[in-house]
TrEMBL record:
Record bears the keyword Cell inner membrane: no
Annotated signal peptide: 1-22
Protein name listed in UniProt: Phosphate ABC transporter substrate-binding protein PstS
GO biological process, one term: phosphate ion transmembrane transport
Length: 312
C-alpha cells in the first residue's frame, strides 16, 4: 500500500489540478478516490526539500480520498533522506539525485531500491537586490560569485551580462546549503559542466565552499538571502517566489538568458538521457535555446521488497 499511496497522491494532485481549471468547487477523480479509500496505515518519509512544498499539497489531497492513511514527510535534505532510507527508519525517501554505487550497496545492492522520477523542477538562483529587477547571469559569472572571485554587484562580469543596467556597488553575500543536499549537487554539477575553468571545487551533496554562509534546507537558504541585502543563493523555485525575492535568468548553451519557467524546465529535461533503470542522466548543456539548464527531477525511493504487509 505504501507504493500505491505515494504514487496516488501525485496522480490525484494532477487530477485535481485539471478539474480546478473548469470548476471552482472541490473535485476529485472517482478512479483515484476508489483506490486506497479503505486503506489504513502511517507512512514516513524524509529527504529532499526540493519536493517538500508540492508534497504537502499532494498529501492534503490524498488525505481527503484515503482518510485512514497518514503520510509524514521530513524535508531534511536528500543526503539525510537517503541515510534514513538506508537505516530503514523511513518507508520512503525523496532525493534530487540518484543513489551512488556505495549507497546502492548500503541499501542491499543495485536494484533493491526503486528510484522513480517523481516531479521535476528548477534550481533557482535567488537574490536580494531590489535595484536589479531582471538579473541575468552567465554560468561563468555565477561560478565566479560562488567561488568568491566576484564580490561586488557592480563587477564588470555582472555588468557585461546585464547590458544597459546599472548594478549597485553593494557587496555580494553568498548563502549556500550546510546540509547534504541534492539541490547542491545539481547546482555544483551545473557549475562544473558549464564553467569548469572558474568552478574548481567539485560537485556533490556537500562541497568545500570557498566562500559564503551555510544554511540548512532550501527554506534556510531563502531565509538567509531574504534577511541580507546583496545576498544570493539557490533553492527550489517555490521558495524565492514565496519570499518575493529576485530570481535570475541564466544563460544557456544557445546564448539565451532563460528564467526557470515550467516550459524551460521541460525543454531542458528533454535533453536528458533515460538510463535502463529509468533514472535520468542530466545534460547541463542542452541544445534547445528555450532550455533552463539547471533543471532536475526528484526521485521517489523505496525498497522493492516491503517488510510490513500493511504498507505493501
Amino acid at each position: 500500500m505504501a507504493v500505491t499511496a505515494i504514487a496516488a497522491i501525485a496522480a490525484l494532485s494532477a487530477a485535481c489540478s485539471s478539474s480546478s481549471k473548469t470548476s471552482t468547487g472541490n473535485t476529485t477523480n472517482t478512479t483515484s478516490a476508489a483506490a486506497g479509500a479503505k486503506d489504513s496505515a502511517t507512512l514516513s518519509g524524509a529527504g529532499s526539500t526540493f519536493v517538500s512544498t508540492i508534497l504537502q499539497e499532494w498529501t492534503k489531497a490524498y488525505r481527503s480520498v484515503a482518510p485512514g492513511v497518514t503520510i509524514n514527510y521530513q524535508p531534511v535534505g536528500s543526503g539525510a533522506g537517503i541515510q534514513q532510507l538506508t537505516s530503514k527508519t523511513v518507508d520512503f525517501a525523496g532525493s534530487d539525485v540518484t543513489l551512488k554505487p556505495e549507497e546502492q550497496q548500503a541499501t542491499g545492492g543495485p536494484g533493491s531500491v526503486a528510484e522513480v522520477p517523481w516531479v521535476a523542477g528548477a534550481v533557482a538562483v535567488e537574490y536580494n537586490l531590489p535595484e536589479m529587477k531582471n538579473l541575468k547571469l552567465s554560468p561563468a559569472t555565477l561560478a565566479g560569485i560562488f567561488a568568491g572571485k566576484i564580490t561586488k554587484w557592480n563587477d564588470a562580469a555582472i555588468k557585461a551580462d546585464n547590458q544597459g543596467a546599472s548594478p549597485p556597488s553593494t557587496g555580494i553575500s553568498v548563502v549556500h546549503r550546510s546540509d547534504g543536499s541534492g539541490t547542491t549537487q545539481v547546482f555544483t554539477e551545473f557549475l562544473k559542466a558549464t564553467a569548469p575553468e572558474v568552478w574548481t571545487f567539485g560537485s556533490g551533496k556537500d562541497v568545500p565552499w570557498p566562500t559564503g554562509t551555510g544554511a540548512k534546507g532550501s527554506d534556510g537558504v531563502t531565509a538567509g538571502v531574504k534577511q541580507s541585502p546583496g545576498a544570493i543563493g539557490y533553492s527550489e523555485l517555490s521558495f524565492p517566489k514565496q519570499a518575493s525575492l529576485g530570481i535570475a535568468s541564466i544563460k544557456n548553451k544557445a546564448g539565451q538568458f532563460m528564467a526557470p519557467t515550467a516550459s524551460a524546465v521541460t525543454a531542458a529535461l528533454a535533453g536528458a538521457t533515460v538510463n535502463p533503470d529509468l533514472t535520468l542522466k542530466l545534460n547541463y548543456t542542452p541544445d534547445d535555446a528555450a532550455a533552463y539548464a539547471m533543471s532536475t527531477p526528484t526521485y521517489l525511493m523505496f525498497y522493492k521488497a516491503g517488510t510490513d504487509p500493511a504498507k505493501s
